[in-house]
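so ive been stuck on this for like two days lol. basically i have the seq below and the ligand is thiamine diphosphate, smiles is in there too. i just want the complex predicted, nothing fancy, no docking runs or whatever. if the output looks off dont worry ill sanity check it later, just need somthing to start from for the group meeting slides
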Amino acid sequence: MISDKRHVQQLAALVLKRGITDIVISPGSRNAPMINTFTGILEFCCRNIVDERSAAYFALGLALAKQKPVVLVCSSGTAALNYTPAVAEAFYQNIPLIILTADRPDYWIDQSESQCIRQSNIYQNFTKKEISLPIGESEKELWYAARQMNECLNLAVSGQPAPVHINIPLEEPLHNLVQIDLPEVKEIELVETKNGLEENELARLIETINQSRKILILAGQLSLNPNLENRLIKLVAKTGAVVLHEHLSNLSDPAFCGSIDLVMSGILDENIGSYQPDLLISFGGQFVSKALKQFLRKNKPLQHWHLSPSGEHFDTYQSLTKVVKMEAVNFFDALSDCVLQIDKSYLQLWKNKEAKVNQLRNEFVESIEFADLKAFSMIGQKIPVNTVVHLGNSSPVRYALIHNRVENAMYFSNRGTAGIDGCLSTAVGFASDSDKINTIILGDLSFFYDSNALWNKYIGSNLRIIVIHNGGGNIFGMIKGPSDSPAFTEHFLAENTHKAEVLAKAFGLDYFKAENESELAQALDDFYSPMQKQVALLEIFTDAETNIRLFRELFKRVKSYL
Ligand SMILES: Cc1ncc(C[n+]2csc(CCOP(=O)(O)OP(=O)(O)O)c2C)c(N)n1
């Protein structure tokens, strides 16, 4: 049985034709036609999550895991507004979400009708396209609706993927059901052409590359892409280019250069000109490292090329000279057979610095008392290889990036907008479709903020939640500025004394805790033991002041040694 609303039937038919089968529904009455239609068709896998904020982040995580669009369905009013944070995150991470919001007919808007707000274009800054479907079911209106739906579904995945919004005004009665199959709907295909580089352009690019002694390649946040990694390995071997990456770039070859914050701290005052690139090539999402941005804004390259299939003009380092509208993998593929440079001294310079700062870090972490810095090192050594790691904002992602990557792990973090409001829901969504152990490491404020992530039926036994209970927003003690304010403790740190234990128990999670090094060593053994068959939460208690002191001392130490 499906709803008798013909637009909704058409929409479900089109969604299915695209091979999109994952639907995340939040309950309501106005969205009954969508609920009844998606749940009435066996091919759809429908999940129900009450909190729309959490549901949308869950869908984002699921879309990341599936590498394909996920449909969201909610009622009208604030239900729809609660999707907004995750829609923004998806927009800045290029993740396709198909957002379906139920609405009242236009003539009831602003007429003191219940659960009724101005809903068209509510996500206009964070979607590729927003449409409101017509209400009528004449042939013309059905044709028009189908044309618009086709366009939305195409745009969500073309070029740089992004969310799209289909607002669906619905007339009562809402609950009528019919026993029919989904209707035949015309599918409009978008054929994408993948133009390569023209010969002339390729020759000019190669000439510039061959003339550049210092080539710096910035790999921002990316999904795992072995083809791209292989192209970059070849390029480094041939040209001596430096590939800078963070864990979230999901590149791991030792030929590349990591530990960026520590390296930056080691070179900021000393001999800086030798690190300044002639040619900068960037692609992927954002970098976490602020020091890198500062370094490149102060030491601008002669040329900066940004690679992006949709051709956005990201001038992050105020030196952009060329936007190359293509996938990074195709770009490096085109170049890799052509360029040759024998001089590897620039690469050696960066690699030596990386090796030195990593050694200093290891010695320092070995010598210090129990604190976040130490805890992250211990966690990193215990997370099983070949698993998935999700990092919360803001100090968890920074601490994790200071330490080595877990071997063969995939890393994720909501760095599109760096919100603390959906880190756990995103991880829960991803883990629900993953057959690997998924570890999410997040701060205590982020955990409490998004604890509704635990309020659903899709939490798999593969999920391991690590809450770093450092008494509030420790990040504000680590960065310059907030800690000098008289309002620091109350309004920046937002001291938190609530414990995650109570929530873990409420949601039926196995609970572990650690307050010192030996307790953490033991807890991690149990947490990741093959005997641990249930979802588990590990709460690690550390002291805010000690954390802040040791974090700053590490960077001072690195600076003073170099
Ligand atoms: C939705 C949202 N609100 C506020 C912020 C600003 N903010 C960034 S980090 C942070 C504190 C996070 O605290 P916690 O989760 O305990 O992690 P820690 O600082 O200890 O890393 C806040 C409030 C944000 N990024 N997102």
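Residues 370 and 516 are 6 Å apart (CA to CA). The longest strand covers residues 97-103.
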